[in-house]
Write a structure and sequence with these properties.
By secondary structure, the protein is of the alpha/beta class. The protein has a single domain, classed as P-loop containing nucleotide triphosphate hydrolases (Rossmann fold, 3-Layer(aba) Sandwich). It is built from ten helices and twelve strands. The strands form two sheets. Strands 6-7-8-3-9-10-12-11 form an eight-stranded mixed β-sheet, sandwiched between helices. A four-stranded antiparallel β-sheet has the order 2-1-4-5. The N and C termini lie far apart (49 Å). Bound molecules: adenosine-5'-triphosphate (ATP). The site of adenosine-5'-triphosphate has 13 residues, from strand 2 and helix 1. This is Peptide ABC transporter ATP-binding protein. One of its GO terms (cellular component) is plasma membrane.
């Protein structure tokens, strides 16, 4: 097996996370599985923002939680290139103490800035906690470090003594970001990190994340459903459908010309608020509901909703994820022959 290249910080290989479905009643028997993530493979390159998109329930959060090792994946590996030159570890093979150094390197920013901060702790305790847990003494140096972190996320150091309730949603998210930065991480997994914020606050937070990415040489896995945000922030975009990766491509290429019919349908729904600015692009309405991850369709999981399904091979054969010329991977039997439309563009 080839080693991940020098530019690869994290390599996810054939990753699956299947949750058991149990029967009701006292004798809970396992009667099925929810295939929340199913055989997903991709690389995260150092310094990039890789976004993960897809409809609700397609497995984005589960994937993020597997990378964080909040979940123990059912199968597959997550290979991480450590700070030691050339060393690659499989995070899925590590536990407890052995995993600790990498927990510092890979941190998470959570969706809900209201629920993710302990209301009984001061900002100083919240931001300093990861350092204290890592063995940093509670001293003046810690106090200074927390103050510096707050300033780096655009908050005043005097705010340290306050409690979370004294802050707005955007400020709370900044406190969460300061906390995530406290251990000098290399990779941040941001799960819907700006979804709960007002549009103007979203923009400020995204710009902050971009600034911090440059300053700290950070790599982001950005889980999101808002494609306008994704287009703005990402270098590459991974599209998931019922637990599977169906397309991964550089952002501009993906938005201009999707290769998977599901990506085309997702992009056609990108809203452009002013109808006069919209070029006429047909909105593709997806027929039916997203497939059920506890009962994934045969063949291509998207065939039940796909306007291009041939009703034969697409129903029988699971398409492999193939690499195309333009640094793109796609899982569709007919990716090369379909003439798909990109996202609606603003008329000029
Ligand atoms: N702990 C769990 N036990 C059982 N099923 C789960 C668990 N966590 C997630 N699932 C199921 O796995 C599937 C994927 O869920 P996940 O939350 O990863 O999707 P998502 O794409 O992040 O959705 P959303 O955008 O709504 O957050 C869903 O069908 C969900 O119900």
């Amino acid at each position: 097996m080839a080693e991940p290249s020098a530019a690869t910080l994290l390599e996810v290989r054939d990753l699956s996370m299947h949750f058991p479905v149990t029967s009701a009643g006292v004798l809970r028997r396992v009667v099925g599985q929810v295939k929340a993530v199913d055989g997903v493979s991709f690389c995260v390159r150092e310094g990039e923002t890789l976004s993960v998109v897809g409809e609700s329930g397609c497995g984005k959060t589960t994937l993020g939680r597997c990378i964080m090792r909040i979940y123990d994946p059912t199968a597959g590996s997550i290979r991480y290139r450590t700070r030691n030159e050339g060393e690659v570890v499989d995070l899925t093979a590590l536990d407890g103490r052995a995993l600790r150094p990498y927990r510092r390197d890979i941190r998470m920013i959570f969706q809900d800035p209201y629920a993710s901060l302990n209301p009984r702790m001061t900002v100083e305790e919240i931001v300093g906690e990861p350092l204290v847990l890592a063995g940093h003494p509670r001293n003046k140096a810690l106090h200074r470090r927390v103050g510096d972190l707050l300033e780096q996320v655009g908050l005043r150091r005097e705010y340290m003594a306050r409690y979370p309730h004294a802050f707005s949603g955007g400020e709370r998210q900044r406190i969460g970001i300061a906390r995530a930065l406290s251990l000098n991480p290399r990779l941040l997994v941001a799960d819907e990190a700006v979804s709960a914020l007002d549009v103007s606050v979203q923009a400020q937070t995204i710009n902050l994340l971009k600034k911090l990415q440059v300053e700290y040489k950070l790599t982001y896995v950005f889980i999101a459903h808002d494609l306008s945000v994704v287009e703005y922030i990402s270098d590459r975009v991974a599209v998931m459908y019922v637990g599977k990766l169906v397309e991964l491509a550089p952002t501009r290429a993906l938005f201009a010309r999707p290769a998977h019919p599901y990506t085309e349908a997702l992009l056609s729904a990108v809203p452009i608020p002013d109808p006069r600015l919209r070029k006429k692009v047909e909105r593709i309405r997806l027929a039916g509901e997203i497939a059920d991850p506890s009962n994934v369709p045969s063949g291509c999981p998207f065939h039940t909703r796909c306007a291009y399904s041939d009703g034969n091979r697409c129903v029988r054969e699971v398409p492999a994820l193939r690499t195309l010329e333009d640094d793109r991977q796609v899982a569709c039997h007919y990716a090369e022959t379909l003439e798909l439309k990109g996202a609606p563009q603003v008329a000029t």
